[in-house]
Specification:
Elements (H helix, E strand, L loop, with lengths): L1 H13 L7 H15 L5 H15 L4 H15 L5 H17 L3 H17 L3 H17 L3 H17 L3 H17 L3 H17 L6 H14 L3 H17 L3 H17 L3 H17 L3 H17 L3 H18 L5 H14 L3 H18 L2 H18 L2 H141 L4 H27 L4 E3 H12 L9 E5 L4 E3 H22 L7 E9 L2 E8 L16 H13 L3 E5 L4 E8 L2
Parallel strand pairs: 2-4
Antiparallel strand pairs: 1-3, 4-5, 5-7, 6-7
Length: 691
Amino acid sequence: MKLVYILLALCWSLKGFSQVPVKKQQLIDSAYQIASYYKLPVDDRLSAYRYCCWKTVYLDFNQGLKISGEYLDLAKTTAQHDKIAQAHHFLGHSYLMLGQIDMAERILKEGLDLALINQMYEGVATLYGDLGNLKNSQGNSDLALEYHFKCLDYANKHQLNVEYARAKINIGEIYEAQGQYKLSIATFQEALHFCTTHKFGGFKSSIYENLGNINLSIKEYSTAQKHYLTAISYAKRLNNNNRLIRSLNKLGELNLELNDLDRALQNYKEALRVALTTEASLLEAKVRTNLAEVYLQQNHLKEAKVNITLAITQLEDLKIKEDLDKAYIIAAKIDHKLNRHDESYRYYQKAYRIAKDNHHLQPLKLASEGLALAYEARGDLTKALTYYKAYNNYNNQIRNEEGIRDIIRLEMQDIYQKKSLADSINKANEIKLLQYQYDKKEERNRLRNYTAISSIIILILLVICITYFYHQKKKIAAVLSKKNKVIKEALNDKEILLKEVHHRVKNNMQVVSSVLYLKSKNTENNIAKKALIDSKTRIDAMQLAHQKMYLKGNYKQIDVKDYFNDIVKLLLDPIKTDDDAFTVHGTQLWLDVEQAQTLGLILHELIANSIKYAWSKTSQKQVNISIDKLEQDIAFRYTDNGCGLPEGTTIESSQSFGLKLINALSTRQLLGKLDIDNSDGFDLKITFHAR
């Protein structure tokens, strides 16, 4: 049966999701990438791990456990003892919140020993405080106080403000649990003042919750409720799930004591939801105990049995005795109503033993009454009488404590009344001060009115001036617009004229080319015919440049790569076979029209010479052409795999018209540098400055 209840709790907990906000989780994930990347410097990784721990161990305990464990492993590889102590604190806290008490104690003591040896005072104070919290959760309040006072001592000596505040809060909690309410209130008020002075907003949720606990104990319900709501507000604002669960749980206890079962149930369910999503087993068990009590009073016995069984299982597994006696008594009452008298009797016995060990009067009273009734029902009147006497004894002790609480409550009410009187006097003085401030404010308002009227007049004058200048500017803009229109029309006419000129030049070159072609057809002299064909192809190369300008609408520059491809198609495609390779290398490059035409003529002459002289009839033909821009210089290169220039022939001494033309165009027209390598075929390179 117990296994079924555990499985039910597990299924319920699986519904949860991380309480870390999405944006904060994204920051944590980014920092964790840095922390876990082993190639980064160790100091950077330690800083990233520290950030991740701060953002997770108080919100998502399992995630905090994983990251703090990695932080400790990395810190131990260094001599940075402060980081090692801090990692022990984070890891020990995570184990404690997940209910793994033995592991938490081992980690915290190990960290404390290292911090003491290396005189890391902040780490010593922090770990003493952690051990105090651990011992308090185990019900050993005396040892817990001893640890917390050691923490306070180190914090005082070494001016550790955060640890001082923590120690004060922890000591105040133990005083409250021991019934020393005046001492507890004084301690918490001192802690609250200290935190306000030093702007430690993160501790305020804890302080207000504990002040609520004290006021609940002395039956100052309205004050307790106000403190609990303030604590919940701070916990939500800071995403402190641990404190949020505790505050909601205590608010539920207040409503339960006021017999407002619906509100109590609402508070407990909200606390349980947060506890399940963060897998805080210890807090979950406490909330389930209270939730079972509400269901019991509402006579929802099935729900009460499920929750109390899960709570007892968790408390027993975690070896937590603080609330176990209370859980046993609730379980006994539920089983009694379910007519499971043997189970009820066993739970009362367990509750009595634990309560007696921890001197918890209220559980002792209830357990004694339950056992007396159980033995009476069994006919064992001797034992029944023994437990009735114990019941009366504990009841008298509780009445004495209640009397003390009533005295404290009356004293507190007297304090509140005196405070209200002082507040009233202060209020009257404040009213007088406010009246004085109001008169001063009225005087300042009159001065502001005079200033405003003057400003309005100046603004009106300024608007008039701006309007005048605006209209003047508008007139000037109209005149400029007309002139711009005339200029645009003239420019458009010139563009049309330029386009027409280039079109006619292209057409005239085409006519000249056609005439030369026809003349070559009608000429019998081979030399003349060859000269006419060469001239025609030169004209065609120049015509291609004008065709590019006309088609692209750009009369200043030509894309030379595209231009070269057209020349190659014009001259080499007619002689190309499947084995030949004619390639133009480079990317799109725009050059000045004059320079581009000059390069086109040079390329024409080079291809013509290759066709005439480079290859035998059976050789595989290859031509590689490239043009690149290097900063402000243009590098043009032409290579073929032919026989090259005759031995001893240079381009300057050559009698060939084509080579002379190439030399002249390169050095005079382009003002470039010409280099020829005749070792392996023909290789020509021209370097010149782009316009």
